[in-house]
Amino acid sequence: MTATLLKEASPPPVGMADRRRRARRRGRIIAIAFVFPALLMLGALVVYPVLFSVGRSFFDASGTRFVGGHNYSAMFHDPATIKAIRNTTIWVVVAPALLTALGLILAVLVEKVRWATAFKLLLFMPMAVSFLAAGIIFRLAYDEDPDKGVLNAAVVSVHDAFKGTSSYPTARARDGQGLTKGADGSYRTTAAASPGHAVDLGLVGVLADDLPGDARPAYPAAARKAAPDELRGVVYLDFTRGGGGEQGKVDRQESGLPGIEVEAVRDGRTVASATTAADGSFRFGGLDSGSYALRLPASNFAPPYDGISWLGPALVTPAIIGAYLWIWTGFAMVLIGAGLASLPRDALEAARMDGANEWQVFRRITVPLLGPVLTVVFVTLVINVMKVFDLVYIIAPGPVQEDATVLATQMWLVSFGGGNDQGLGSALGVLLLLLVIPAMVFNVRRFRGSQR
Q1: What confidence score (pLDDT) does residue 234 get?
Q2: Which residues cross the membrane (predicted)?
Q3: Element (H, E) at 296
Q4: Residue 388: CB partners within 8 Å, gap ≥ 6?
Q5: Residue 91: what pLDDT?
Q6: Closest CA to 126 of 117, 134, 136
Q7: How many CB atoms are closer than 10 A to CB 48?
Q8: Which residues contact 63 (CB under 8 A, 6 or more apart)?
Q9: What's the CA gap between 173 and 200, in Å, rounded?
Q10: 96 CB neighbour count, 10 Å cutoff
């Protein structure tokens, strides 16, 4: 009787299905407990700002008056925003394509280099540099002053090596001293000269310390007489250090100006040319009798070549894209190199055995097999360039900031950089989000497809 009552009072045995259900429920609770902090942070740092920006984009600059879609309409009527959209389009079209192509070429070439690991490390190192530091580096590299900017220093060196440079860019003639300046910057004698005469051409505006090291006094050359069949003279610095001397006359302390080109002109045509010696002297021999004018070409006084205005309105966007390529080329190379390492080598070797050269193997086999990897790299870079901000804001100088602006910088400038219109800035942020979402969705689908 007692055993029967105890049996009826005891709980029914728990089945295996119930145990599994309870274990799953307990696992879900534990998983939610671990994920909840991350979800909380995601909501606070991503979801809430997105929803707040969407809502804020429908209000005016003060945030108190509802304006509907006015900010979105004004956004496309603002010339600065239109320029930002144009520059963003240039970034999206040019930068990812160049980076993917460079990454592919370098990944293929690195396979044939003995020190491949060191080469990859060298190219990947810029990724360890912050965009702020990279922007400062390239702001200095692009400096227009050749004494500061390394790129212009190289450009000026190459230019001067092939075309040379003027030694007297600041030289000029005194008024009323027998030389008149032409529209092209050259100087011409006002009085005619003929063979058997000597002409002294005085210039000023050259500091004594800037004279060439081989310059010699001009007085001995000026004192020499011209032969009957020659026209000679001297080009000198018409200035005596310490004062004194007579204008328009070669004094004993005055220096000749070597390396100046002098032309003899008759009937508007150059019939002879000479270059001044260390004492500034020049001579024309074998001239026909008659009158000649002497001309100092404008090339003698051309200002020095200062290089390229890398950060000017025309080149500022390509210059910043160049800095971006320096940073991200290693990233593209490493990802494409990982895909290249996983390619079936038997297909490549079979093509080579069938007589295909390296270019055919690369174009017809390597590139098609790397298609999925190249697509992922390209789309990832598209997402990245749409959000580029640091490099544009740091590298572009203030006067050309508007010429280089992209959507991210325009959003910041409108909201916080002086515009103080967070309604319009929020609309720009929403536009940027809408442009990025399709690329993100495409990339996620590609990742899921590759996992399957």
Answers
A1: 92
A2: 29-51, 89-109, 121-142, 323-344, 365-383, 423-444
A3: strand 293-296
A4: 91, 324, 406, 408
A5: 94
A6: 134
A7: 11
A8: 56, 422, 423
A9: 12
A10: 22
**Domains along the sequence of the chain with CATH:** 70-154+310-451 (1.10.3720.10), 179-301 (no CATH)
- Sequence-distant (6+) residues with CB within 8 A of 256 are 215, 216, 217, 218, 221, 234, 235, 236, 237, 276, 277, 278, 279, 280, 281
Cβ 115 vs Cβ 347: under 8 Å? no
> Residue 254 CB: number of other CB atoms within 10 A?
23
Identify the three-state secondary structure at position 235: strand
In the predicted structure, residue 214 carries a pLDDT above the cut 90: no
In which element (H, E) is residue 273 found? strand 269-275
Three-state DSSP at 295 gives strand
Residues 178 and 189: beta-carbon distance below 8 Å: yes
- Dist CA 246 CA 287 (whole Å): 31
Is the separation of the CB atoms in 333 and 355 below 8 Å?
Answer: no
C-alpha span between 36 and 17 (Å, rounded): 28
- Residue 11 has what pLDDT? 54
**Strands, E assignment, 168-268:** 179-181, 187-189, 198-203, 230-237, 261-266
**Strands 179-181 and 261-266, how do they pair?**
unpaired
- The radius of gyration computed from the CA coordinates of the chain, to the nearest angstrom, equals 38
Q: Taking all residues of the chain, what is their mean pLDDT, rounded to a whole number? A: 84
Question: Is a pLDDT exceeding 70 seen at residue 432?
Answer: yes
Give the strand pairing for 293-296 and 187-189.
antiparallel
Phi, then psi, of 179 in degrees rounded to 5:
-125, 135
Average pLDDT over residues 84-109: 91
Q: How far apart are CA 179 and CA 331, in angstroms?
A: 63
- Percent pLDDT > 70 in the chain is 95
Q: What is the pTM of this model?
A: 0.75
* Amino acid, res. 68: G
Contact 176, 191 (CB under 8 A): no
Mark out the alpha helices in 43-164 (DSSP H runs): 48-56, 70-75, 79-110, 116-124, 131-141, 150-163
Q: Are 146 and 156 in contact (CB under 8 A)?
A: yes
Q: Which helix (H) or strand (E) holds 282?
A: strand 281-285
Over range 403-418, report the average pLDDT. 87
In the structure encoding, which two tokens stand for residue 108, read together? 């293929």
The Cα-based distances of 78 to 34, 62, 277, 341, 431 in angstroms read 47, 19, 62, 49, 14
